[in-house]
């Protein structure tokens, strides 16, 4: 059952409203703006009907507050007179669903409420579907990583550290938090192309011959192929294609340089190397972070984007890198 919050300083109006909605809804009656705000702060509601002209606090202010604390709830304003200015404020600042002029037609108000709540249910269903879809996409990334894990020396903890280092670096580079989190998730797929690399090369204990090395390098573009053409994986494709490009143009597969390499790939390149240096691998002991930072710094402008190197230094100095490493 939906909950309706009815707000009016006139007890008679409030009683009339309550009577007309008591059947079929849970109604909360607030005698005035302050009482309305108190309800909004304490109880989740689905729809608010609020009078405009009340002492101390006006309807547009109450609905503006509703937008802040319960943005999902539908807001309807009752106006006793044609107050154009407050209506404008309300439409602009409180994003009201509709205004109804007093005296109102009960059947019309009732229909307005029914329609508004139908829209609310639809929106909530859509939100749930979108969330489920997002979870499914994330699961697909994890499944791919899991499938690739047995193939490569990369472990899931490497991928998780890469994910969170990438997210932190992206934020430091000015990427908004949602896009940065997405970039982090997509970074886990940087070496997915190794699924297509023959085990004889991938797991060869000795040095690779130049021909074998050429096959190894193909994993960048194999990844792009595996990642298909769904727009959701665009960043993952950028990262797979570009994480072995060098800032000075000496990398592979395309020899791109500078800003021609997508930011996501420039970030993951540094992060991937940083993590390889600071963790144990079959062929090496972990380097202390200071040593790894100095190594990366000495390659700024050659392998790495100097600006991203600077941001990495900041994240090292403020303890972010240490914190992420200690979790995974
Ligand atoms: Fe790679
Ligand atoms: Fe890696």
TrEMBL record:
Gene3D superfamilies: 3.40.50.2300, Hypothetical protein af1432. SMART domains: HDc, REC. Residues 3-117 form the Response regulatory domain. Pfam families: HD_5, Response_reg. The modification 4-aspartylphosphate is found at residue 51. InterPro entries: CheY-like_superfamily, Cyclic_di-GMP/3'3'-cGAMP_PDE, HD/PDEase_dom, HD_GYP_dom, HDIG_dom, Sig_transdc_resp-reg_receiver. Residues 133-328 form the HD-GYP domain. Keywords: Phosphoprotein. The keyword Cell inner membrane does not apply. NCBIfam families: HDIG. This is Response regulator. It comes from Candidatus Methylobacter oryzae. The lineage of its organism: Bacteria, Pseudomonadati, Pseudomonadota, Gammaproteobacteria, Methylococcales.
């Amino acid at each position: 059952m939906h909950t309706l919050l009815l707000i009016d300083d006139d007890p008679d109006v409030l009683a009339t409203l309550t009577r007309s909605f008591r059947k079929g809804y849970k109604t909360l009656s607030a005698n005035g703006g302050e009482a309305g705000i108190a309800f909004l702060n304490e109880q989740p509601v689905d729809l608010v009907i609020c009078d405009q002209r009340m002492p101390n606090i006006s309807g547009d202010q109450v609905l503006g507050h509703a937008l802040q604390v319960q943005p999902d709830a539908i807001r309807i304003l009752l106006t006793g007179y044609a107050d154009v200015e407050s209506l404008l404020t309300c439409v602009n600042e409180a994003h009201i669903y509709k205004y109804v002029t007093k005296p109102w037609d009960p059947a019309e108000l009732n229909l307005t409420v029914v329609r508004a709540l139908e829209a609310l249910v639809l929106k909530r269903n859509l939100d749930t579907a979108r969330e489920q879809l997002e979870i499914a996409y994330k699961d697909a990334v994890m499944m791919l990583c899991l499938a690739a894990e047995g193939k490569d020396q990369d472990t899931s903890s490497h991928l998780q550290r890469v994910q969170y280092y990438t997210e932190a670096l992206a934020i430091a580079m000015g990427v908004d938090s949602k896009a940065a989190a997405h970039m982090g998730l997509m970074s886990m797929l940087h070496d997915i192309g190794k699924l297509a690399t023959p085990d004889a090369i991938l797991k060869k204990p000795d040095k690779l011959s130049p021909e074998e090395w050429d096959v190894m390098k193909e994993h960048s573009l194999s990844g792009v192929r595996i990642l298909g053409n769904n727009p959701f994986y665009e960043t993952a494709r950028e990262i797979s294609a570009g994480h072995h490009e060098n800032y000075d143009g000496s990398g592979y597969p395309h020899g791109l340089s500078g800003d021609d390499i997508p930011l996501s790939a420039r970030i993951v390149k540094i992060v991937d190397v940083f993590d390889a240096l600071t963790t144990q691998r079959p062929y090496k002991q972990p380097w202390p972070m200071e040593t790894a930072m100095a190594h990366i710094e000495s390659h700024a402008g050659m392998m790495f984007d100097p600006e991203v190197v600077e941001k990495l230094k900041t994240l090292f100095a403020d303890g972010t890198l240490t914190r992420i490493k200690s979790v995974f």
